[in-house]
Automatic annotation (TrEMBL):
<dbReference type="InterPro" id="IPR004700">
    <property type="entry name" value="PTS_IIC_man"/>
</dbReference>
<keyword id="KW-0472">Membrane</keyword>
<feature type="transmembrane region" description="Helical">
    <location>
        <begin position="98"/>
        <end position="119"/>
    </location>
</feature>
<keyword id="KW-0813">Transport</keyword>
<feature type="transmembrane region" description="Helical">
    <location>
        <begin position="32"/>
        <end position="53"/>
    </location>
</feature>
<keyword id="KW-0812">Transmembrane</keyword>
<dbReference type="Pfam" id="PF03609">
    <property type="entry name" value="EII-Sor"/>
</dbReference>
<keyword id="KW-0762">Sugar transport</keyword>
<feature type="transmembrane region" description="Helical">
    <location>
        <begin position="65"/>
        <end position="86"/>
    </location>
</feature>
<keyword id="KW-0598">Phosphotransferase system</keyword>
<keyword id="KW-1133">Transmembrane helix</keyword>
<dbReference type="GO" id="GO:0005886">
    <property type="term" value="C:plasma membrane"/>
</dbReference>
<protein>
    <submittedName>
        <fullName>Uncharacterized protein</fullName>
    </submittedName>
</protein>
<keyword id="KW-1003">Cell membrane</keyword>
<dbReference type="GO" id="GO:0009401">
    <property type="term" value="P:phosphoenolpyruvate-dependent sugar phosphotransferase system"/>
</dbReference>
Length: 159
């Protein structure tokens, strides 16, 4: 139960780290994997999965308005899959024990791509709210702050 609550808090933190608020680079896969592995008592597994996704997604370059796969939350889910699918306490690399890593890879890649698509859709919808707010000069700074906070919390809950 405590592990689940801690994982939810880390998921929220990792998702919020990808927004324009409080960026500490916790959403990098290597760090997210380490955190998830430590919570689940499988630090080595978390590091292996985190390093795998760090290498896979390290060539991301912020060009234009491109949306990347949602690497942080996807890595968190991949570590959970790897730990829960592992037949023993440590993730080994012999033939039957490679299956948890394969499951983690599939879950992480699928989750990252799904997160990218959902974020693209949500941010497209939010652009209309920001455009309406910018078009009305009578709006005040308090409304802008509230809308920004709603978006940060919304992305955190999505994580």
């Amino acid at each position: 139960m405590i592990e689940g609550l801690l994982l939810l808090l880390v998921a929220f933190w990792v998702a919020v780290d990808t927004t324009a608020w409080g960026q500490l680079l916790v959403s990098e896969p290597i760090f997210t994997g380490l955190l998830a592995g430590a919570i689940l008592g499988e630090v080595w597994t978390g590091m292996v999965v985190g390093a795998l996704f760090q290498v896979l997604w390290s060539s991301r370059a912020p060009l234009g308005g491109v949306l990347f796969p949602w690497a942080g939350p996807a890595t968190l889910g991949a570590v959970v899959v790897a730990v829960w699918a592992s037949p023993q306490t440590a993730l080994g690399f012999s033939a039957p024990e490679i299956l948890p890593l394969t499951g983690a890879l599939a879950a992480g890649m699928g989750g990252g791509e799904m997160g990218r698509r959902v974020l693209g859709w949500l941010r497209g919808r939010r652009d209309h709210r920001w455009a309406k707010l910018a078009a009305d000069p009578g709006r005040n700074l308090k409304r802008v702050r509230r809308l920004h906070l709603q978006e940060v919390i919304g992305e955190g809950l999505l994580g």
